[in-house]
Amino acid sequence: MTISKVQQTTNQGGVAPKANNKDLGKDAFLQLLTTQLRYQDPLRPMEDKDFIAQLAQFSSLEQMQNLNLNVNLLRGTELLGKTVKAKLTDEKGQERVISGLVTAAQKVDGQVKLTVNDQVVSIEQILEVSL
């Protein structure tokens, strides 16, 4: 049997979205699962136990992410009333360090944000904590 032509194809429909922090989140996990179901071999479909195991992993992933968010919020509330230094980056990529008292902690779009000197900073931007 002779193959006359090989052609490269790219299928963007089955590609999971890239996560910003190099970790797969629940949306990427669900995308991978649905892609796997869409392109499974019809002669060897996924077994029920495999599908249930993956759904359990998905549920565990979501619960761990929620737990992580709540732990980070707890960390943020522990910083209330303390002086912190935080590194901020502006739109031009210029970095500067601010120092001030933490006056508020809140959840915003799945992240913990602190208010320092009337500026909102992410808890990941905190460099130093002092009394």
UniProtKB/TrEMBL annotation:
- Ranges that cross the membrane: none
Task: Please list the residue ranges that the record marks as compositionally biased, kind Polar residues.
Answer: 1-13
Q: Name one GO biological process term.
A: bacterial-type flagellum organization
Q: Which InterPro entries match?
A: FlgD
Q: A Pfam family in this protein?
A: FlgD
User: Which stretches does the entry tag as region Disordered?
Assistant: 1-20
Q: Does the keyword Nucleotidyltransferase apply?
A: no
Q: Does the keyword Cytoplasm apply?
A: no
Keywords, ordered alphabetically: Bacterial flagellum biogenesis, Cell projection, Cilium, Flagellum
Task: Give the UniProt family note.
Answer: Belongs to the FlgD family.
Q: What is this protein called?
A: Flagellar basal-body rod modification protein FlgD
Provide the species name.
Carboxydocella sporoproducens DSM 16521
